[in-house]
Design a protein that fits this description.
The protein has 645 residues and is an alpha+beta fold. The chain is 17% helix and 25% strand. The chain is globular, with a radius of gyration of 26 Å.
């Protein structure tokens, strides 16, 4: 890195694209001129490609001159050596869109990103070697990282600022000082890898929370050290932490929190507009470079949400109480932030793209299609894996979703008999049935035992759901499934059939198809089954269709789906996995439905996998409803813990 010695315009360098640090006058230099970025975080992997330009333009019109973005490794390499870089995964196109709008890019390629994303962006297949030490100089981990960065970083090099692109800085790892390994050899490996692929001119930096110990473990000579903190932090103390490691150079808050994340079962987090704008004003008045995390949060579509410890998974919405809502709507916070920025920088003139219109398509009647057990032929076409004891998800090459574990009762349980998975061995939620009669639920960190009844030889099923891997802290190596033995009245159960369930292919090719409508295997809503005394229903797929009116212009439009009378499950529209719903726990009650997955040419298909209790025993109640306003949760009344506190 060549560091210029003055913030004055250097005539000889005026025609060159350079981005560097002036350590004498504590500033960045862009093309030889003093520069300060005011940035916002946006996650392309949480927003449909259809809306990338809309969201980026709204960010530009707020007065931002840069965006900050993660690259989640597992989003692009879901299986070893199988890469996805097209459509919603086209990260290069996203960066080029930002460039075309005149936005600079702060790139955070990991390999670990946190981001409340499954396993912090690390691919689950790394866990196929059970002893692997993630985020360290473990040879197996290093080899996988080296291969991945050898694919990703060459794609990024032409997009660096000095090569004509918008990327001005590149973060190495992410809040590494908060991880227990504190392995400088790992950081040195990353430094060499980034330099090898990106060159010596790119400005590499690190980010850590406001702890001298964390920053000390998270950075290395040759990286520029930055910190992150929210509205409640003492700004003077925060600056002192950065200055301990960077006595000179620009002041940087790489994550200034505009809101906060949610967890199922907790109230929706909010950070007041006044708190955000007051702190932002003070930061900018001190000359700090600021990135607002998040400027738009987006959605954890599919199974991509993460979780924190003690185990608490995040919901489908990643609204984050950000200036732009989950659906990209302009908020009071957006305009208030814009007003603060205009006190320091010129804000673009012209019209701000409006919030997208929403449409309430109304109620859609569903009907019960098949239970998970009845659909095993299409959910697990290769059949089960046989094992004496239960195997984890990765052992059967299942990384997300569900696995069905099946065995038989070795003895009569005419009276309630305890079924247990000790040592917290259910990761994360198991729906238990005997001979098609629901028995109850085992849940990680909550319920590790329940009483069951059944006769010797009866089929015992545990449908285990992966609710999202831990994304922050020392427990990233989050194995899913039954990770310990199952006992029946202190007797270890053996001889398991383990069915990995491919819900995505099944929904697209069979369970959601209109060809299923006349399938004789399908059950009607009123079909009678053995009744669970606990009022659970067997996990089952339900399907319905709705047509979008053709006499209303500008349809389809965005919408939100809600689940009156439903409990917990997964929903797909036209084969697209919207994510989890869990109104029984909250705080999220509706799921965002972007217009790009809807069609007007044929009826739209809705598939719901209800796991606990559906309303479909009464056919007229077997409905979902599309509404034009989201319901995410109640205003938090208790203090929300910060990861840096």
């Amino acid at each position: 890195m060549v560091y210029l010695r003055s913030c004055a315009v250097v005539a000889n360098n005026a025609s060159l694209r350079t981005f560097a640090i002036d350590y004498h006058q504590d500033c960045f230099l862009k093309d030889g001129q003093r520069f300060r970025y005011i940035s916002g975080s946006i996650h392309y992997h949480r927003i449909p490609r259809f809306y990338w330009k809309d969201r980026l333009l709204k960010m530009k019109m707020a007065g931002l001159n840069a965006i900050q973005m993660y690259v989640p490794w597992n989003f692009h390499e879901p299986q070893p050596g199988k890469y996805q870089f097209s459509d919603d995964h086209d990260v290069e196109h996203f960066i080029q869109l930002a460039h075309g709008l005149g936005l600079l890019v702060i790139l955070r390629p990991g390999p670990y990103i946190c981001a409340e994303w499954d396993m912090g962006g690390l691919p689950a297949w790394l866990l196929e070697k059970e002893s692997i030490c993630l985020r360290s100089s473990d040879p197996d981990y290093i080899a996988a990282v080296d291969k991945w960065l050898g694919v990703l970083l060459p794609k990024m090099k032409p997009l660096l600022y000095q090569n004509g692109g918008p990327i001005i800085t590149v973060q190495v790892e992410n809040e590494y000082g908060s991880y227990f390994t504190c392995d400088y050899n790992y950081l040195r490996f990353l430094q060499k890898c980034f330099r090898r692929h990106l060159g010596d001119e790119v400005l590499l930096f690190t980010t850590d929370g406001l702890s001298a110990k964390s920053v000390g473990c998270g950075t290395l000579e040759g990286f520029y050290t930055t910190v992150d903190f929210g509205t409640g932090a003492n700004i003077t103390a925060a600056i002192q932490v950065q200055r301990k490691f960077e006595p000179r150079g620009p002041l940087v808050n790489s994550e200034f929190y505009t809101g906060w994340l949610d967890h199922w079962g907790a109230e929706h987090s909010r950070v007041s507009t006044q708190a955000v704008t007051s702190s932002l004003y003070n930061l900018l008045a001190l000359g700090m470079n600021v990135n607002m995390y998040m400027f738009i949060g987006g959605t954890n579509f599919g199974f991509w949400n993460g979780a924190n410890m003690p185990y608490a998974p995040q919901p489908t919405s990643y609204d984050y109480d950000a200036p732009l809502s989950e659906a990209g709507d302009l908020t009071e916070k957006y305009f208030a932030i814009r007003d603060v920025i205009r006190k320091f920088e010129k804000v673009p003139e012209g019209l701000i793209p409006p919030s997208t219109p929403k449409f309430a398509y109304g109620k859609v009647t569903l009907r019960k299609l098949k239970t998970v057990g009845e659909a095993l032929d299409v959910l697990s076409p290769a059949g089960p894996v046989k094992s004496l004891y239960p195997l984890t998800f990765v052992k059967v090459k299942q990384y997300f979703g569900f696995v069905l574990y099946r065995t038989t009762l070795p003895e009569n349980c005419s009276s309630p008999t305890p079924l247990s998975v000790p040592t917290g061995g259910v990761h994360d939620r198991a729906y238990v049935s005997v001979n098609g009669v629901p028995q109850g639920i085992l849940e990680r960190g909550k319920e590790t035992s329940l009483n069951i009844t059944g006769v010797a030889g009866a089929t015992l099923d545990l449908l285990v759901e992966n609710m999202g891997r831990v994304n922050y802290g020392r427990y990233n190596n989050d194995f899913k499934g039954l990770i310990s033995n199952v006992t029946l009245h202190n007797r270890v159960l053996t001889d398991w059939l383990i069915f990995p369930l491919n819900t995505e292919d099944a929904v697209r090719s069979h369970l959601g198809g209109r060809s299923d409508h006349g399938n004789r295997c399908c059950r009607k809503s009123g079909d009678k089954r053995p009744h669970s005394p606990l009022n659970f229903t067997l996990p089952a797929f339900h399907v319905g269709n709705f047509s979008i009116p053709t006499d209303i212009p500008d349809l389809p439009q965005d919408t939100f789906i809600q689940f009156p009378g439903w409990t917990k499950g997964q929903v797909w529209i036209n084969g697209f996995n919207l994510g989890r719903y869990w109104p029984a726990r909250g705080p999220q009650m509706t799921l965002f439905v972007p217009q790009n997955i809807l069609v007007t040419s044929v009826p739209n298909t809705v598939v719901v996998l209800e796991l606990e209790r559906s309303p479909c025993e009464v056919p007229e109640l077997c409905t979902v409803e599309f509404v034009d306003k989201p319901v995410i949760g109640k205003l938090a009344t208790t203090k929300v813990p910060r990861k840096n506190s």
